[in-house]
Each structure stands twice: as C-alpha cells, then as structure tokens.
Amino acid sequence: MICIQQLNYAYGKKQVLKNIQLDFNENQFSVILGRNGCGKSTLFKLMAGLENIQQGSILYAGRALTQFKGKDKATLLGFLPQFHKTVFPFKVRDVIITGRAAFSRFHPSKEDWKLVDQAMADLDIEHLADRAYTELSGGERQLVMIARILVQSPKIILLDEPTNHLDVYYQSYLMKKLRQLSRQNFTVIAIMHDPNLAFLFADQLFFMRQHEVIQPDPRSKVTDPKFLKSVYDVEFHEAMIQDKTIVVPDHSWL
Question: What is the dotted CATH code of the domain comprising 2-211?
C-alpha cells in the first residue's frame, strides 16, 4: 500500500531523516517505535503531505500523494496528529461530521450523517453523540477524532501517538479497535512509545534510531533485549505472559 524509498529530510542543516526505506502492507496494523527526536513525527508529516519531500519518494499504491486531489485524497488518507485541541463546546456528532467536509462542504446529506452514526457505532461511542467535546476525557476525545477520520472512509489511517496521555483502559481499548479496523479494509499505521502495546497488537513493527530505520538481526526476535537496548538505550528483560512475550526495563542501575 505504501512504499517509501531513499527518503531524506533536513530542517536547515539538521538532518532528521536518513535514507528511509519502508513498505507498509495493505490492511494491516503497523507501528513505528523509537525514542523522542528520532524522526518519527517528521516522517508522518511527510507521509500526510504536511511537509514537502526534499529527496526520495513516498508512493501510495504506486502514486505520489500530490497526484491525489480533494475527495480522492480524503478517501486515500486520514491523519490524526499528536496534538489536537478544540476550545469551542461543539457536540461530538458535529465534530465528527467535519470529517465529511471534502465531500459535502457545508451541507451534509443524510448519507453523511449515516456515516457519522456508523463511525460512532464502530467505536462504541454512540452515548457521547450529544456531549460537548470539551467535556470529554482524553480517551473519549481520541475516539471521537478517530471517528472523524472514519467518516472519510480512507484506505489509510495515520495516527501519531494515539495512546499518549490515555489511561490503561483506553490504551487497551483503543489498540483493540485499531487492530479491528485493520481487519475491516483499513491500513492502520501508528507511531508509539510503548513497545509492549505494539508487541501485543501490531502486525508489523518498525524501529527508528537517530533518524534511521533499523531492524533486528533476521535470526533475532523484535523483543530481543540487545536489539531493544540499541533502540532505547535502556536494558530490558523478556517475560512471557501466556503465549505473548513482553519486555521489562531493567532498573537495577537506579
């Protein structure tokens, strides 16, 4: 679905992406992991068309994003940035309908509102429909913003740190929903910090370190403590929970 080749990017003289090469498979839940400042958010901005490509290419089913306009772009790609804030107390359903702006302008049709109802049902947030967005918890707001993307019916959903600032319940709930969406004809790609959540729910895992993509030795697992130390600069220990492997930071040096 997405092919990134020889992608380089710099802010002035500061190189923030170096020779990025990635392939994201269609209808899977993929996660990019890495420390703060390694280039993950800049990569997403380029993928979403918010920054101009300086060198290299990003192709969506063989086409550059600049070849998609208006409705075609809206049905290709939905993007949820790391930070979003609304200061006006709009009702949740009115926030979600703005995701149909590329299709209906300022006159939503009955079909547009049906899509809003369907998105709320898919995320189990129908009970929030008439609540003011500004009164919601962080987890509820995140689900509303994802519903806003769903009404676009995009093939690809990009989420920059979707579990950030969420409690344990909403982290688990949201990850399950994202995995479900990838099984419902969406290609879901997220930036995350927590490797364990990614290990438990994602289909594809990619790692970034110092502005480059790195992968473990083919003979090693992604949970290999030595590899993870190279990503996070922290010692890890592996642990088995039922049939799943998680990792625990080593705090013995504290």
Answer: 3.40.50.300
